[in-house]
Amino acid sequence: MTVGRASRAQLVLVLAVLAILHFYVRPRLWDARVSPDFLMVALMVYAMRSRPGDAAIAGFVIGLIADALSPARFGAGALACTLVAYAASWGRAVFFADNLLVNAGMIAAGVWLRNLIVVVASGTSQAAFIAELGIYGPLQALITAVAGVLILLAFREWFAIRLDV
Amino acid sequence: MLRASDRTFSRRDTVSFLVCLGLSVVGLFLPSGWGASVAATLRDSALTPFVWLQARAEEGRTSRARFRAVTAERDSAAFAAQFLPAIAAENRQLRSLLGLRAHLQTPYVPAEVLHQSSPTDARMLLVRIAGPVAPFEPVVSPDGLVGVVSSAGHDQASVMTWAHPEFRVSAYSADGRVFGMVAPSSGSSGTDAGLEFRSTSYRDTLASGTQILSSGLGGVYPKGIPLGEVLGIAREQAGWERVYRLRPAANPSAVTHVLILRPPQAASVTAAFPGDSMLAALRADSARRQRLADSLLRVRIADSVLRAHLRDSTPAAGPVRQPPPAAPRAAPVTRPAPVDSAR
Q1: B234-241 average pLDDT score
Q2: A45: which residues sit within 8 A by CB, 6+ positions away?
Q3: Which of B124, B138, B169, B322 is 20 to 30 A off residue A17, Cα-Cα?
Q4: Model confidence over A115-143: pLDDT tens digits?
Q5: Cβ contact B24:A60 at 8 Å
Q6: Interval B132-176: pLDDT, tens
Q7: What is the pLDDT of residue A74?
């Protein structure tokens, strides 16, 4: 389902809300490592409703923002978000993108995969790799998925989300 | 079979993806300095509103701005607000920072940490600064060393924390016996990372709990910043060196406010290393002083000659050779008349 002209404005509005949530609400929550990543929610919501090329560009931009704000290894975030967004856009052809649980699962998988690629591309030890994939990654993925579900529920009319899970 | 328009879109998608992927890989393999400058440029331009927004959110979370208004208007509400865990923790940190600032001899710039949701947040921190800073300036919290400024913009900077794999600091034990190098442990991760005290001499052994401080060697970190305390021996390398595990003094993931230490204004040491021009100036100065001393000597000589001449000329005026002892020096000149009348 490619977003139409009418729904594109709604999508832009939701993405703007998510950006504000990310930069204004997320810092007020708990530890940054496990707080919801609203930019990833925005990216996944956009990627699952647009063409793979557009999703890749959006992923690159979001990753570049992440790299600029936390430049542990410049380019790692861009690479990770590009791959995740492109894969999510292709994944909507396989899954039902209007299902709430599918959306939640895609968001969780996207966050976890993004963290995995960032950690690998940044270069880290085996212990850190295991801790990231086993503890922090799943926690952040789960919390981000819950936040994504709440967002999708709030705007379910615009995204045509099916609730009969 | 794909229609022509679908094929076009598909080709466009693939091209977009490959371009983004290529740019990401290029960014990944750029020299770190270039990457940091690109990131700083982005933060100073396109991301400025977002960084500003997050700074306001951090202020809201830690209630600093709200606390300023509340202290002026609602003392009771402020009292109640201090029992909130986040505000209590922030108050503790700020009080500690105030205590640290009172003891600091070197100039510093306070900064506020803007934590990100990235898994590498504990390695590189984004801080909002209250004054100009420069790369390679140490960043400290009341607990100890947090890291070093990696790159700096006009109102924000990125800080390489001790959890970064490239972080190193020269250190010594608090008892002054063992010197070495502190680095993140090889099994370090973001929030639960540890430090190692490496390159220490094999003949000395440090007990658990010994505090490790920065030694000041290298010129980046001042001497005496707490780095951590010894937990035990991590490994020994062929009877040559001992590597100790350290419990870090400061936790980059939990810190909200830091101080960036600025280099002290160095006094001029030019006089200690005189060049040709300085030597000439010193010689000129010494010659002037010599001339002054000579002229003073000449004046004194002339004065004494004059007095001797006056003394010698006095007997010709009268027969009295011994003037009264209490009389002033000019008396022989002004008293010839009574002598004559006595005659």
Answers
A1: 78
A2: A11, A14, A15, A18, A103, A148, A151, A152, A159
A3: B124
A4: 888 888 877 777 777 877 788 888 888 88
A5: yes
A6: 888 888 998 888 899 999 888 888 888 988 888 888 999 998 888
A7: 80
Q: Residue A53: which of B12, B23, B122 has the nearest Cβ?
A: B12
Cβ separation of A32 and B115 shorter than 8 Å?
Answer: yes
Instruction: Report the amino acid identity of residue B108.
Output: Y
What DSSP assignment string belongs to B78-109? HHHHTTSHHHHHHHHHHHHHHHHHHH--S-EE
Residues of B in contact with A27 (CB under 8 A): 54, 57-58, 61, 114-115
Q: How many CB pairs under 8 A join A and B?
A: 184
Q: Out of A77, A79, A115, name the one closest to residue B25 (CB).
A: A79
Contact A50, A2 (CB under 8 A): yes
Instruction: Average the pLDDT over A35-61 and give the result.
Output: 85
Q: Tell whether A86 is within 8 A of chain B (Cβ).
A: yes
Collapsing DSSP states into helix, strand and coil, what is residue B254?
Answer: coil
B121 contact residues in A (CB cutoff 8 A)? 32-33, 70
Q: Which residues contact B45 (CB under 8 A, 6 or more apart)?
A: none
User: Using the beta-carbon criterion (under 8 Å), do A70 and B126 form an inter-chain contact?
Assistant: yes
On the 0-12 / 13-18 / 19+ scale of CB atoms within 10 A, A93 is exposed
End-to-end CA distance of chain B: 157
Higher pLDDT, B228 or A130: B228
Residues of B in contact with A31 (CB under 8 A): 191, 253
Q: How far is CA A146 from the centre of its chain?
A: 12
Which residues are CB-neighbours of B227 under 8 A, at least 6 positions away?
A: B144, B145, B162, B169, B171, B182, B195, B212, B213, B214, B246, B248, B249
Residue type, B196: E
Backbone angles phi, psi at B265, to 5 degrees: -70, 110
Q: For the whole model, what pTM was predicted?
A: 0.51
Least Cα distance to A119 among A19, A33, A35 occurs for: A33
